[in-house]
């Protein structure tokens, strides 16, 4: 994902800009869902990543995971 792309959760309420190395920080996300990333208008300028956080992540201040955006 290119630096500066826009990442949003399923609800489109949580949004963030993609940082260096493809890192995205989102808050208020449910335990499972999709993250959509767009860096242009065409179908080849976007991707979707499915994610699933473990239930114990609700007790943590910060959770981290790696997913593939396709």
Automatic annotation (TrEMBL):
One of its GO terms (biological process) is pilus assembly. Signal peptide: none annotated. GO terms for molecular function: fimbrial usher porin activity. It holds the Pfam family PapC_C. GO terms for cellular component: cell outer membrane. Residues 1-55 form the PapC-like C-terminal domain. InterPro entries: Fimb_usher (IPR000015), PapC-like_C (IPR025949), PapC-like_C_sf (IPR043142). This is Outer membrane protein for export and assembly of type 1 fimbriae. It comes from Klebsiella pneumoniae.
């Amino acid at each position: 994902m290119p630096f500066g792309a826009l990442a949003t959760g399923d609800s489109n309420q949580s949004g963030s800009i993609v940082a260096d190395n493809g890192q995205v920080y989102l808050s208020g996300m449910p335990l499972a869902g999709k993250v959509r990333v767009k860096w242009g208008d065409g179908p080849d300028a976007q991707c979707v990543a499915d994610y699933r956080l473990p239930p114990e992540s609700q007790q943590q201040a910060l959770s981290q995971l790696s997913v593939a955006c396709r």
